[in-house]
Fold this sequence. Notes:
2 strands, disordered N terminus
Amino acid sequence: MVLGVEPAVAISDAEARFERVRRSVGLWLAAPVFGLVWFAAGDGKDGRLAAIMALAAVLWISEAIPPAVTALLAAALTVLIGVATPKEAFGAFGHPLLFLFIGSFFLAEAMVVHGLGERFARAAHRVARGRMGSLVALSVATFALSLFMSNTAATAVVLPVAVAVARADGHRGFGAALVLAIAYAASVGGIGTPVGTPPNLIAIERIRDAGIEIGFLRWMALGLPIGLVMLAVLFALFARRFDLQGGAAVRVPGSSGPWSRGELAVATAFSTAVLLWVLPGVLELALPGHAFTVWVDARLDEPVVAVLAAALLFVWPIGRDADGEPRRALGWAQAARIDWGTVLLFGGGILLGELAGKTGLSAKLGDALVAASGADSLWTLTALITATSILLSEATSNTATATLMLPIAISIAAAADVPLAPPALGAAFGSSFGFTLPISTAPNAMAYGTGRVTIRQMAGAGIIFDVIGFLVILAGLRLLCPLLGLV
């Protein structure tokens, strides 16, 4: 059961059978694929790494074993077959960007623990009028939360409020539209900031390795406009596909009441993090080259800010427990509930991406794909990578899709001698655009798990949203990348 969502069968019997077959096939295919790729690619370091990446791809797509375990297995195999040293392999799991994840996950967990996100969702819904107003208000709330917390967490916060509204309204079509809109808004909101979803940080790191820096504000200048356009498309699409006319103003059950000390602590820590994340970019615009700008840029790195803001929660007193001991805004038992699997998966993706460059695998793969596809211009390659990422994201997690696609995107760009940022960004954004099936994203699965939306309704809206999303990403990158100096 998802944080107050009505208990229901998460997936249909047919989907359950499909999942069992998918995992079983992946488990049996992994070793033969590993061997075949090694044999075909040769015994050089690049060939052995290609075999490991093929193994990881099969396991990530099939989810035969947990994705985080696949990441750790891949790291161990790089040492076992002589592609990397133990320090190289496991040092990737101490990469600074992992601590940006951890710190932002701590902030998001505290927001859930103290109910700040739910308060925000309820406040947004108070201004809603009618069914369309409710859908817009709760979708906007989800979008805003997803900018700074995981798509799954943002959905989990708002979905109970949406289910309560749908239950009070009583119109089944409205219920389907509302829970589905929450899921889609979480996914498109995630692309708006670097910390919104893991593919964003994977893209930033891969692009940074190539010598191009994309800071917090620069990413927002790319992702936020595309996300907002998709949110507007969502409203227009759902207004046409679902019966959202009429409906009385629905009061959300429950009362928010006065702010608790915990909510104030979380709001302060969260606001501090956001301000410090954007400060270097603002100073670069206002005082370029100034000594203070250089000092801030060198010290207020995004991971440092995330850890400092999260640490504030562990020392902020909000009262005393039953034994009279001081109670903090966040305790370790609560913090330990964050998604450590995603952290490990991200570490494995960093390792494989770095090794692909060092061994020369990226260059060979890029040459082969350019030759096979026939795409040779910047925007045809960007379209190819974006479309492939969207399709792949329908079958596997957005993090696994980005981990697989970003090295390929950068390799293709290098092989074709075109700017690498647009294809890499297309891979990152496309990885978050899986809208068709419950298995495509965690928000989709959670929406389906409420029992208020059918697979047919999700697939019908999702296919259209995927196609429009592809066009919006491509148009957005073509317009924004030149303006931001990325081409």
